[in-house]
Design goal:
Layout: H1 14-21, H2 27-31, E1 37-39, E2 55-68, E3 73-79, E4 85-90, H3 96-100, E5 106-116, E6 119-123, E7 126-129, E8 141-143, H4 152-165, H5 174-180, H6 185-193, H7 201-205, H8 210-235, H9 247-255, H10 262-275, E9 282-287, H11 293-305, E10 310-314, H12 318-332, E11 339-342, H13 348-359, E12 365-368, E13 382-387, H14 395-403, E14 412-417, H15 423-429, E15 434-438, E16 449-454, H16 458-470, E17 474-478, H17 486-503, E18 509-512, H18 518-529, E19 535-538, E20 551-556, H19 564-571, E21 582-587, H20 593-604, H21 608-625, H22 644-660, H23 662-673
Parallel strand pairs: 4-6, 9-14, 9-15, 10-12, 10-13, 11-12, 13-14, 16-21, 17-19, 17-20, 18-19, 20-21
Antiparallel strand pairs: 1-8, 2-3, 2-5, 3-4, 5-6, 5-7
Helix pairs in contact: 6-8, 8-22, 8-23, 10-11, 12-18, 20-21, 22-23
Bound molecules: adenosine-5'-diphosphate and magnesium ion.
Length: about 675
């Protein structure tokens, strides 16, 4: 039971609702709701000594107060004990304010001093009626993050109550605190809520103060604790042991037109070891676009098959699923292995037949979209689930695939991500997974050249495209992203094809977009892959996974509208063959600051990990991880950039606490996550 607090709002009350918006659900959550900044109300400045531009607190008596017309304002003149005078002015106000400002009232005003028309003034100062000689606060005044309808005063009062009445015991043993050179919890938390006026303001502001370090460390530690505990809990489940037999995997590698890179061999080995264990693998395979993750997945799937168990590969789009099916099919056909294919728009009969082959266990491998996790799909011998482009799926969808497995055992999970995840983020938000890194691209690739061009040069680009295509090259033309409307996006795509067809009658031009039927998409992709089309006009449906090594040109219109990861993914569609590839980013003007920054990064960088680091810096972790966020508490105080060195320590300590002091771990988790931790258990 979390401790109760006298003064805590009743369940269902308006205030409880407002607090919930701040993620404050229990009294204890108030304790770690920390100030954004502080105001110094511990001092009074004589009016005569205030300077325009400075924030100050003054105290004086109202000598006059009036509502002016025609521009309705409330204007009060205040005189302090040293005889200085100042105007306090309100442009928006309730009538009741005038009563508080009745002549003779004594007030403290806090705000920015300005040089106004009537002399020095404060506009909309914070106001506090006081008695003569009323004591000043002893500590800085915290300003908390809050939400409309919940004022600072109310929040301060509640937090004050929590600090006075709830236990602030320190779960970290003193020896550990000393070792890490961290202050005690109560000491740190009191200081941050109510700093003494002589504190190093800069250290407080930059959050480098030891008190902040303690709080940020606890936050990182709690994140490690909860993710590692989820990891350990999942290891307690049973999984089918898939010992490497080598029969199928070896045959596959012998038939391949290429040999695995050293990185692919290493990662394949890591996965093979996991699959042979009696508990489920929980591994994230990270590799830049084009690093060759598919073949690694294929090896893992064959390891299941050679043991007589099923494996399923789920991809986020039909185009990608279809391509995987085609590619794996080509690789596995020589081994006499057949793959079931499940996508949303398949014909009923074909679909029923596939389902039956999977249900009977006749077919061991399945590839599909989220159609794989729909109800009628039965994979009685599922022992391995592979999720490609995992960031495109929500937590629930990933778990749903797991549930398809044989009862009593959980399938091994291999998640693949083409959006490289910076190390700090991997160590924090993905601490519940084992990570394999494909940090080498297959040989023979030449890096893509990137060019920037404004819309004004579109005509010139079309002319160059013609020359290139007539010389045998193939190109993608990516239509602008129109987030507000899929219909509008489609319209633009149709128009683009028309314009290009008119301008380039001698070229064969195809069009692909999300509204096409599966078979139509497959046909267009196949025609492009076979070299029958010069240009493929496309919406962002081609963003992930599409692999046509012969295509060596890409034009992206209104590139400024795309995110960094998206641009990198799109650009990753070319530069897959031996030919020198070029990506032209056409941008519209005016460019926003952020768009300019993104284009600069994508122009200068080819390495997905470097781009991801920039992206994380520009957008922050919440935006960066997107779908995975559901259910995961984000870091509120610790910063992956500035606090990177603490992460490793937090991780080690988390393991130590889980093993040696589980009650301390419980206490930390309860304090920071309260009831929210349950969401992580999956
Ligand atoms: P991604 O990691 O982006 O999913 P893919 O698995 O689609 O990359 O692989 C990209 C391309 O590289 C494919 O055409 C694939 O067949 C090819 N490929 C993969 N591994 C190698 C290798 N070791 N040598 C040469 N080509 C490879
Ligand atoms: Mg891929």
């Amino acid at each position: 039971m979390p401790p109760a607090l006298h003064g805590w709002p009743a369940e269902g009350s308006r205030q409880a609702g407002l607090l919930a918006r701040l993620d404050i659900h229990e009294p204890e959550d108030l304790i770690v709701h920390l100030p954004l900044r502080y105001e110094d109300e511990t001092r009074l400045t004589p009016i005569a000594q205030t300077r325009p531009g400075e924030t100050a607190q003054i105290e004086g008596e109202v000598i006059s107060c009036e509502i002016t017309q025609p521009r309705r304002q409330l204007r009060a003149r205040v005189r302090d004990d040293s005889g200085g005078e100042m105007i306090a002015r309100w442009i928006n106000f309730y009538a009741s304010l005038q009563k508080q400002l009745a002549p003779g009232r004594r007030l403290r005003l806090f705000g920015e001093v300005r040089d106004g028309f009537f002399g020095i003034e404060m506009v909309h100062p914070r106001l506090r009626p006081v008695e003569k000689n009323e004591a000043l606060p002893q500590t800085l005044t915290p300003v908390y993050p809050t939400t409309a309808g919940l004022g600072q005063a109310a929040l301060r009062r509640l937090i004050g109550l929590a600090l006075e009445n709830l236990p602030l015991d320190d779960p970290l043993p003193a020896a550990i605190r000393r070792r890490l050179d961290l202050p005690g919890f109560a000491e740190a938390i009191r200081l941050l809520h109510r700093p003494p006026p002589e504190i190093d303001a800069r250290a407080l502001e930059t959050r480098a103060h030891p008190a902040w370090r303690r709080i940020k460390f606890d936050e990182l530690l709690v994140q490690q604790l909860s993710l590692r505990r989820a990891y350990n809990a999942r290891r307690l489940h049973q999984a089918v042991r898939l010992a490497p037999q080598g029969t199928l995997t070896r045959a596959l590698l012998e038939h391949l037109p290429f040999t695995l890179t050293a990185a692919q061999r290493r990662v394949t080995e890591e996965i093979a070891v996991d699959l042979a264990a009696p508990h489920p693998m929980q591994r994230l395979l990270q590799g830049d676009v084009g690093s060759g993750k598919t073949i690694v997945a294929a090896c893992a799937m064959l390891q299941a098959a050679e043991n007589g168990w099923q494996a399923a590969l789920m991809a986020p789009t039909e185009i990608l699923a279809e391509q995987h099916h085609r590619k794996l099919g080509a690789w596995l056909a020589p081994l006499g292995i057949d793959i079931a294919w499940l996508a949303g728009n398949r014909k009923k009969r074909a679909r029923a037949a596939e389902l039956e082959r999977l249900r009977s266990g006749e077919c061991l491998l399945a590839v599909g979209t989220h159609a794989l996790i729909e109800d009628p799909v039965d994979l009685p011998r599922l022992a391995l689930a592979v999720i490609d482009e995992q960031h495109r799926f929500g937590v629930r969808q990933r778990l749903a695939l797991r549930e398809k497995g044989a009862s009593g055992a959980r399938p091994h999970m291999l998640m693949m991500s083409a959006t490289p995840i910076p190390r700090t983020l991997a160590m924090t938000h993905y601490a519940d997974l084992d990570i394999s890194l494909l940090d080498e691209s297959p040989p023979g690739r030449t890096p893509v050249r990137t060019r920037l061009a404004s819309t004004a040069r579109r005509g010139e680009i079309i002319a160059r495209l013609k020359t290139a295509c007539l010389a045998g090259r193939q190109a993608y033309w990516v239509c602008p992203l129109i987030e507000e409307s899929e219909a509008l996006q489609l319209k633009t795509a149709l128009e683009t094809r028309e314009t290009l067809e008119t301008a380039l009658p001698e070229l064969r031009i195809g069009l692909i977009h999300g509204r096409l039927k599966s078979e139509e998409k497959a046909a267009v992709m196949a025609a492009f892959a076979a070299g029958e089309l010069h240009i493929l006009v496309a919406t962002t449906v081609i963003e992930v996974g599409v692999d046509v090594p012969r295509a060596s040109l890409m034009i992206i219109e209104h590139a400024e509208r795309f995110g960094l990861a998206q641009l990198h993914q799109l650009r990753g569609r070319i530069g897959r063959g031996a030919a020198r590839s070029t990506c032209i980013l056409i941008y519209g003007q005016p460019l926003s600051e952020a768009a300019r920054a993104r284009l600069k990064v994508i122009y200068e960088q080819n390495d997905g990990f470097a781009i991801a680091r920039e992206d994380l810096r520009i957008r922050g972790p919440g935006e960066f991880i997107g779908a995975r966020q559901s259910g995961l508490p984000l870091l509120r105080y610790a910063d992956l950039d500035t606090d990177a060195e603490m992460i490793e320590t937090a991780r080690e300590l988390a393991e130590e606490l889980l093993a040696t002091a589980p009650q301390a771990a419980d206490k930390l988790l309860a304090r920071w996550l309260g009831g929210r931790e349950a969401l992580l258990r999956a």
